[in-house]
Amino acid sequence: MAKQSIFGRISTLVKANINALLDQAEDPQKMLDQLVRDYTNSIADAESAIAETIGNLRLLERDHQEDVQAAAEWGNKALAASRKADELRAVGNTADADKFDNLAKVALQRQISEENEARAIAPTIATQTEVVEKLKDGLNGMKVKLDQLRAKRSELLARAKTAEAQNRVHDAVKSIDVLDPTSELGRFEDKVRRQEALAAGKQELAASSLDAQFESLEDVGQLTEVEARLAALKTGGAGGAIER
Predict the structure, then answer these.
(1) Could you tell me where the DSSP H helices lie in the chain?
(2) Which of 4, 39, 40 is CA-nearest to residue 21?
(3) Is 242 helix (H, G, I), strand (E, B) or coil?
(4) Quick count: other Cβ atoms within 10 Å of Cβ 23?
(5) Average pLDDT over residues 175-198
(6) Residue 62: how many CB atoms within 10 A of its CB?
(7) Spatial distance between the Cα atoms of 195 and 201, rounded to a whole number of angstroms
(8) Record's PANTHER family (predicted)?
(9) Cα–Cα distance list, 234 to 223, 227, 237, 238, 244 (Å)
């Protein structure tokens, strides 16, 4: 029963459609990890069951060989006893000849018994041999499937990492999109423009203040000239322009 159960598990796992299982799984990576564990455990169980089955098969084969060999030996003994009986009968020793004939009959009976045992074991050996071959094929199929699972898992992990890297690159490129005013670069450019505008405003304000200062200097110059002419009027009596 245990061997049949192992054989059934091997058959089920070998026939399993990995891609279909992955399509139905919410988390393909977890599904693959679980499948790898299941296959690894099942392979270990199958190897143990197959080893036991092979061991039993070899015992049956040994018993069969011993029965065949024993049958041959009893046949040889029967032949030797029969020939001895013929020799004794040829010389007129009928009593001893009958004894050896009886021994030949006993040997023949033992030969028949050993042949029957060997014949009875043969179908079981054939059946067990077929089972062992199927188990071996199934085990090899499981090992191939396990290799596929591991490769699929590696492929899935690589694809996941690639997709993650692509998303990071996409996010990074998006964050520095020069045409996007909401991007980090756009916000930084806006800040620079505001600072530039502030600096321009300060320069304009400073220039305006400087012009006012020069204008005040011109006013001072005019007042100074008026005062000079007034002094000249007082001293010279004439109110004309001062010669220079």
Answers:
(1) 2-15, 18-24, 28-90, 94-175, 184-236
(2) 39
(3) coil
(4) 10
(5) 70
(6) 10
(7) 10
(8) MEMBRANE-ASSOCIATED PROTEIN VIPP1, CHLOROPLASTIC, PHAGE SHOCK PROTEIN A
(9) 17, 11, 6, 8, 18
